[in-house]
Amino acid sequence: MTSPASGAGSASDLPDYAPTTRSAQSETGHAAAPAATAGGNRRLGLALLVIATAQLMVVLDATIVNVALPHIQQALGFSGSGLEWVVNAYAVTFGGLLLLGGRAGDILGRRRVFVFGLLLFSAASLFGGFATSQAWLLTARAVQGVGGAVIAPTALALITTNFPEGGERNRAFGVYAAMAGAGSAAGLLLGGILTTYLSWRWVLFVNVPIGILVAAAAPRVLAESPRRPGRIDVAGAITGTGGIALLVYGLSKAATGPDGVSHWGDAQVLASLTASVVLLVSFVLIEMRSSRPLLPMRVLADRNRSGAYLIMLCVSTGLFGLFFFLTLFIQTVLGYSAIRSGIAYLPFAIGVVIASALASQLVPRIGPRPLIVAGAAMVAGGMFWFSRLTEHASYAGDLLGPQIVSSFGLGLVFVPLALVALHKVAEQDTGVASSLLNTAQQVGGAIGLAVLGTVAWTTVGDSVRTQVAHAAAAGRPLPKPGTPPPTSIYYHALTVGFSRAFLVAAAVGLVALLIAIATIRVRRQDLSGAAPAPQEAALQPPVQQTAAQQPGTEEAHEDRTAAAAAARPCRLC
Question: By CB atoms within 10 Å of each CB, which of 353, 412, 481, 540 scores lowest?
């Protein structure tokens, strides 16, 4: 398999894999571009397996616990409001520490930090699996989030460290995106199986052997990025991490709950969101003045990259809302068991995998913009299709179609978004650029669930009251005050509320589409890896032209291309 990044002038006898050193990489984050050998391809394949497995483990953990929540509540005595922190304890630390995790990899070495994150995640999973109290389990979940915040950005950044720009990197991002999208759906199925046939503790124990094996394999198959002198921007780390964590916390507490009670005006929520705004504004001011910022503002200066982050923010609203509301719908209204509901998501997981593979093949041919535009449109269309659900819905007639459309849209979006977000990023900023993509996903999901939850449960409450009033006007029997409404009324209200939430998610998908049209300008040639990046080209010595090499002839163009390739620094020096 020959890399498009090898280009003209690369030696045919170079190995297909070589550890990437500082001199082997340009400031744009290009990995070494080796030629093809069977052994090198196997090494790259193992490297991709390690990265993809780590990403799958982190994504699985965000949903695998959801199916086990009723069993955890029964075993440890959680209240209804306390149970949500089994999920939120992970989400808050994961979302809050992503920037710090990405920057730590840039400074200390990505492979080293990656392995540390895997071991921490595995140890926390083992610790949590033996929990006998609420505080014990919540502490373990929070530490898991810390490990995930280290793994996720370094795994994405390690793709640029180990895979040359072009075909190999596109395929690697395709696999990574498939794990990111399909892992959530697979987590629901695996969680149902483990909880039903073993115990809720196994949704945590399952991470331990996987994490240890991946951590052991990483030093053998992954190239290390160079360590960089300097230190972590402490003020930026405190304000940035605290601001994001409080934002995720405040939004997760703010949403209107199933009881129809809104928490947006609660003192705790207002204090958290206000403190978050203050800290994030302080973070921006600190980063603009810092000599070694946690988030260099140059990372956000590129319009394409900023657009990719905003698009990820929007599509994550639909993704998180889909899993939350659709799971409640099929288990509560349609009466599916935990295992059956997990199986119901298999077409979604398969769709993301197929679309991600397709996107990685199409990026070199048509570029990222058409894929992002088409994917965002499909996500919006799928969410709108879900908004047509009724309490009499069938799986084949009403759930399968929008699942396929939404999953294909997400698969088409994830691959080019990752490529655009890391395109032309200075090598020393790859970790923070990748962490911002993960942060956009987490924050987008938190915002989405808060907003969509408020829309859904407010609509549910209004629908129940309206139906009860109509029943009273028609002289039908009414439920006694303080008792639950009849099942028919409640199921109809749930369906109406969830449909309204999906309609809002569709509108957010349209916003993502408009952002893609307005901001994404990266061309397919920019991601081919065949030409040097602008920074690299600027460092090349001028090539003397003869009369035969003057512009205007095909021979002159070929001569200039060969000369430019020969002038590039040796990629393995």
Answer: 481
* Residue that is written with structure tokens 């947006």 in the block: 264
List the Cα angle 254/442/335 in 5-degree steps.
Answer: 70
Can you give the length of the chain in residues? 573
234 contacts 137 by C-beta, under 8 angstroms: no
- If you ran DSSP here, which 8-state letter would residue 397 be given? I
Contact 289, 483 (CB under 8 A): no
**How many beta carbons lie within 10 A of that of residue 65, not counting itself?**
23
408: nearest Cα among 315, 504, 342: 315
Q: What is the pLDDT of residue 544?
A: 41
Task: Give residue for tokens 């949704």.
Answer: 203
Q: How far apart are CA 376 and CA 321, in angstroms?
A: 15
Cβ atoms of residues 292 and 238 within 8 Å:
no
512 is written with which tokens?
């993502």
Q: Give the DSSP letter string of 282-317.
A: HHHHHHHH-SS-SS-THHHHSHHHHHHHHHHHHHHH
Cα–Cα distance for residue pair 276/282, rounded to 1 Å: 10
Q: Is the Cα dihedral 559, 562, 567, 568 positive or negative?
A: positive
- Distance between CA atoms of 42 and 39, rounded to whole angstroms? 5
Show Cβ contacts of residue 31 under 8 Å, excluding neighbours closer than 6 positions.
20, 24, 25, 160, 161, 162, 163, 164, 165, 169, 223
Distance CA(200)–CA(153), nearest Å, equals 28
Supply the pLDDT for residue 302.
84
As given in the structure block, the two tokens for residue 35 are: 């030629």
Neighbours of 443 (CB within 10 A): 21
CA distance 514 to 510: 6
In the three-class reduction of DSSP (H, G, I as helix; E, B as strand; rest coil), residue 231 is classed as coil
Query: Pick from 89, 31, 25: which is nearest to 62 by CA?
Result: 89
- Dist CA 117 CA 125 (whole Å): 12
Euclidean distance between CA atoms 101 and 153, whole angstroms: 7
The residue written with tokens 């972590």 in the block is 232
Structure token digits, residue 273: 């969101």
Q: How many helices (H) and strands (E) does the chain have?
A: 19, 0
Structural tokens at position 108 = 């200390």
Cα-Cα-Cα-Cα torsion 232, 311, 507, 367, nearest 10 degrees, comes to -170
Question: How are the residues of the chain apportioned to helix, strand and coil, as percentages rounded to the nearest 5?
Answer: 75, 0, 25
Crossing angle of helices 368-386 and 303-328, rounded to 10°:
30
pLDDT at 5: 32
Task: With a cut of 50, list the residues of the chain below it in pLDDT.
Answer: 1-38, 530-573
Please report the DSSP string for 506-520 in residue order: HHHHHHHHHHHHHH-
Q: What is the pLDDT of residue 258?
A: 67
